[in-house]
Write a structure and sequence with these properties.
The chain is mostly helical. Helix content is about 55%, strand content about 5%. It is globular and about 85 Å long. Bound molecules: protoporphyrin IX containing FE.
Length: about 300
């Protein structure tokens, strides 16, 4: 923490700072903007949030002005993904403890973060194709395809695709983190565990399996969701859980869609810096699913009888 004398304040202002010691910590007080403002040699805003590191973590590789937008868009999304991974792990612990209300609150927060990320594409949409082309050549083969956290998020939600770890070849820490999440139950596995503990018949192959393998949809799980959704009042907490989890996939896909559309707007149908077919690859990803039975069950739901017939 800087000494007030280090702030180069005019003498009159510097004198306006009152120093005291509170609980052994040197504390300062001054009248600023009509308020009595206090700070001390304990924890400051910058120390707590590490703004020094955060705001020095933007390292453009070109001298083109629009690269800053590109960097900060990616960095803010990475921060939100970090928070989602954290919240989802909290929610999964609540699910394991059958604390469904607490899990629900955390899942709602995660869905709200996703909505925020979807809206934030509008900022990147101000990047014109010409703006991007000024610095694209400097990016080399760097691509969001190599985002460790994004892949971890897919694994955690239930989409286990081990081959995608390959691009982290040479980064042992990234590979270890991804393999760990790959080998653990996903959010959907935890939700299916809840269904089983609530008396629904779920096959052992869904409850205890090699978690690193892709999830295979099960007739029993679909039947369980169908029963719950056909009579929500009889199964309210599970119905509510099903809808909260569905919202996550719904928003995730909306994020994918906005990314794909933004990419089409900026680079058309050229290949990505990561080597894929670009928009074509991103369109294919729109068919990926985390919670298959929660979607397939909807087609089979019973229509209620029409009154008077
Ligand atoms: C102008 C901006 C952007 C362009 C042109 C772009 C382009 C692309 C392309 C073409 C791909 C396919 C992989 C490849 O061949 O590179 C891709 C993947 C990806 N991008 Fe972007 N992107 C942009 C912004 C962003 C932002 C802001 C994020 C936020 C983190 C992001 C995250 C990702 C992720 C996670 C993937 C992997 C998707 C998957 O495998 O399903 N991208 N991007």
């Amino acid at each position: 923490m800087k000494d007030p004398a280090d702030f180069n304040l005019p003498e009159a202002n510097s004198a306006a700072i009152r120093r005291t010691t509170v609980g052994g910590v040197e504390t300062f007080e001054a009248h600023i903007a009509g308020e009595t403002i206090q700070w001390d040699r304990g924890l400051s805003y910058g120390q707590h949030l590490q703004t020094g590191r955060l705001l020095n973590a933007q390292g453009p590789v070109s001298d083109k002005p629009d690269e800053m937008l590109f960097i900060i868009m990616h960095q803010t999304m990475e921060l939100w993904i970090k928070l989602m991974l954290h919240e989802l792990r909290v929610a999964m612990a609540h699910l394991r403890g059958d604390e469904l209300d607490k899990a629900g609150r955390t899942l709602d927060r995660t869905a709200t973060i996703m909505q925020h990320m979807i809206h934030s594409w509008e900022v990147l949409a101000t990047l014109s194709p010409h703006d991007f082309m000024t610095f694209r050549g400097y990016l080399g083969k760097a691509s969001g395809f190599q985002s460790q956290q994004y892949r971890e998020l897919e694994f955690l939600l239930g989409l286990k695709r081990p081959d995608l770890i390959l691009v982290h070849n040479g980064d042992e820490a990234a590979q270890a983190a991804l393999n760990k999440t790959l080998g653990e139950p996903s959010l959907y596995d935890e939700v299916i565990g809840v269904l089983s503990r609530h008396g629904f018949t779920i096959p052992d192959s869904s409850l205890s399996r090699d978690w690193s393998k892709p999830y295979a949809p099960s007739v029993e799980v679909e039947e369980a969701w169908l029963t719950i959704y056909n009579d929500p009042n009889a199964h309210w907490t599970l119905y509510d859980l099903g809808e909260k989890v569905t919202a996550l996939e719904y928003y995730f896909q909306e994020w994918r869609f906005k990314h794909m559309k933004t990419v089409a707007r900026v680079i058309g149908h050229r290949h990505g810096t990561g080597g894929s077919a670009g928009v074509h690859y991103l369109v294919k990803a729109l068919d990926l699913q985390f919670f298959p039975e929660l979607w397939s069950m909807r087609t089979r739901m019973e229509a209620h009888p029409v009154a008077g017939k």
